[in-house]
Amino acid sequence: MTTTENISPASPLNVADHTLFVCKTCASVWQDGKRLGESGGQKLLHQLQQLAQDWELRDEFPIQEVECMSACNRSCVVAFAAKGKLTYLFGDLAVDGSASAVLECAAQYYVKADGLLPWSERPEALKKGILAKIPPLSQ
To answer: What pTM does this model have?
Structure first.
């Protein structure tokens, strides 16, 4: 007798195979060493979280906030990363109006076995501002 199990896209340690990283410090206004108000990165993060509530990949491609991704002169910044795939770092994203393009591009990334995102296939908001394309770790 064979038992059928639900196969999850997450690893045995319950860590998702794909992650969308979002810098929450991007586009901050600072005064006397303290951040004033909500940063552009926090606004983009909230927009992504709102849109992701109805996103078909919300469970397979979680959004993880990051304190800083060290691309401060190119904010706002997001990254797509997955096991065995290229990692992409995008910057120069508009605080307003780029969240849906980020999720659209993440969905394209999700279905590519190697994660390769040809320039011509990316949403307009992610055609410019690519900061890095990092090879996958050898397995």
So the answer is: 0.85
